[in-house]
Structure formats: structure tokens, C-alpha cells
Automatic annotation (TrEMBL):
Pfam families linked to this entry: HTH_1, LysR_substrate
Name under which the protein is recorded: Cyn operon transcriptional activator
Top-rank taxon, per record: Bacteria
Sequence ranges assigned to domain HTH lysR-type in this UniProt record: 1-58
Organism: Hafnia alvei
Length: 298
């Protein structure tokens, strides 16, 4: 009963209203409200401020929520530990990954994992790096595939390979036969770039700023497939991970001089959370695939 009340409280705080929270915890709104009241009566304090349209935790509620989240995470890890099967005959694995990986890495990678461990149920989520790190901290994920960062102190980053960025051109572009481009050349052509909610875009903007260059931005899109279609069907160029470009039949990767920045792809793990047998198996696969032979050999 007490745990259900805690989960009800956390759901209300997450959604900031009772309607969505009631759907998540499969309770009617009156029943959900009653559980919160029972919890407040047990503690002798008001945990939620209901005086506004958006429900918020009180100051006391914020303090209590910090401990409640930690306690539920520990209980969840305990549950996973006792139900973990070391021979991998069953189990589950929750993995988050940043968007550019979906275009060239996720399919082949999880195909291999599924072939090795067909009884492990996979839960895959495409997320921004910021959200991925947050979900790892809150035990919403077991592992992450993203980039080395130093923003989250409780996360370990296991370097896997260097991701190289390149200029992407389609068959319709007069630049298709080129192998290298200069800054002057790239500044003169119209570009289609990923939107600023992509980590890749931050690297591109930083490169242009470093060289005091303002690109000719014609189109901005929040979809990798849209950028690929635009480049293939027009004279627009883009900047994308070279591994994505090389998978496209009607596209060509051009090196930029000076070189575009590289970034280090990594496997992300929480430093203190329970690591299941499935997580260990996935980590071993990553080491075999990338740290020994490298991505280019696959």
C-alpha cells in the first residue's frame, strides 16, 4: 500500500496534474487523490500544492521526493537483482541512444545482440544526450549509447570509437566528385542542417564559429531522414556523421579542410546502480565490436 502511494505521488509530480497521472497508474482521479491524501496524513505534512492549475510539490514535498525517488530506485534494483538470470535464458535490457546512431549503428548492433540472446527482451529509446543521462541517473535506463561528456558525475563513460563528421553531397550536386572542400567553398553553398536540438548541430556550429564562418543555411530539420532526402534530391549539402553518409548509395562524403571535429562515442553506465547479466553481456559485445577491432572493420 505504501509503495503504491509513493508511486502515485511521483506520477502526479512528473505529469503535474492528476488526469495524466491517473492514466499512468491505472487509477481513477478520486482514487489517486485519496492515495496522496493518505500519504500526507501518514507524514503529517502537505506534499503537494493544489492551489494552481499545475500541481507542484511543496517545499517539504521536494525534500521528501528526493528520498522517495532514491528509495524506489533501490527497491527496483533489488527486484531486478533477485529476478536476474545469470545464464541469460530470460531477462530484459533498457537502452537509450542518441538520434544519429539510429541511422547506422542501432539496427546491426541489436540484431547481433538478439541473435546471441534471443530471450532477452529489449526496450530501446531514442533520446537527446541530456535526457539519456537524466534517465540513467533516475534508473529509467540500464545503459546508454551516446558521447563522452563530463556533465553527469554519477555516470561512467566507456569510450568505443571516434565518430567523424563529413560534408554530405548528393548525385545532383556539382561537388559530387570532390574529395575535399575548403572553408570558402563550404560557405558558398546552400546547406540543410539538423536542428539545434541535435548534439551534432552543436559540433557543427562550434566548428563554424571557431573559423569565423557563417554558413548559408537554407533548410533546418529535426529529422535525419529528411536531411538525407533533401541532399539526395537537390544541390543542397549537409554535415553528418561519415558513417551515415557512407550507407547511402546516392551520396558522397567530402572531407572539410581544416578537419571537422571528431567526437568519442561511448557506452554509458551508472556508477552505483545494479548491473544485470544482460547489461554485462551487452557491455562485452560493445568491447568485442568496437574496442578490439574498431567500427570501420565491421
Amino acid at each position: 500500500m505504501f509503495l503504491r502511494n509513493l508511486r502515485a505521488l511521483l506520477s502526479v509530480v512528473k505529469h503535474r496534474n492528476f488526469t495524466r497521472a491517473s492514466e499512468e497508474v491505472c487509477l481513477s482521479q478520486p482514487a489517486l487523490s485519496q492515495k496522496i491524501k493518505q500519504l500526507e496524513e501518514q507524514l503529517g505534512v502537505a506534499l503537494l500544492d493544489r492551489s494552481h492549475r499545475i500541481v507542484r510539490p511543496t517545499d517539504v514535498g521536494e525534500v521528501y521526493l528526493e528520498h522517495a525517488r532514491r528509495a524506489l530506485n533501490e527497491l527496483e534494483m533489488g527486484y531486478r537483482a533477485i529476478h536476474d538470470v545469470q545464464d541469460l535464458s530470460r531477462g530484459s535490457l533498457r537502452v537509450g541512444f542518441t538520434p544519429t546512431f539510429s541511422a547506422y549503428l542501432i539496427g546491426p548492433l541489436f540484431k547481433r545482440f538478439y541473435q546471441l540472446y534471443p530471450n532477452i527482451q529489449l526496450h530501446l529509446r531514442e533520446l537527446s544526450q541530456e535526457q539519456l543521462e537524466k534517465d540513467l541517473q533516475e534508473n529509467e535506463l540500464d545503459l546508454g549509447l551516446a558521447f563522452v561528456s563530463h556533465n553527469a558525475e554519477h555516470i561512467d563513460y566507456l569510450p568505443l570509437f571516434s565518430e567523424v563528421l563529413a560534408v554530405a553531397v548528393g548525385e545532383n550536386s556539382p561537388l559530387y566528385s570532390k574529395e575535399k572542400m575548403t572553408l570558402d567553398e563550404i560557405s558558398a553553398v546552400p546547406m540543410a542542417l539538423l536542428s539545434q536540438d541535435f548534439a551534432t548541430r552543436a559540433y557543427i556550429d562550434s566548428y563554424f564559429d571557431q573559423h569565423q564562418l557563417k554558413p548559408h543555411l537554407a533548410i533546418e530539420a529535426n529529422s535525419i531522414s529528411t536531411i538525407l532526402d533533401l541532399v539526395k534530391s537537390s544541390e543542397l549539402v549537409s554535415v553528418l556523421p561519415q558513417a551515415i553518409i557512407e550507407k547511402q548509395r546516392e551520396m558522397h562524403a567530402i572531407s572539410l579542410v581544416p578537419s571537422l571535429p571528431e567526437r568519442t562515442a561511448a557506452l554509458l553506465l551508472h556508477k552505483t546502480h545494479y548491473i544485470s547479466a544482460a547489461s554485462h553481456a551487452f557491455k562485452s559485445l560493445m568491447i568485442d565490436e568496437f574496442m578490439q577491432d574498431g567500427i570501420d572493420s565491421k
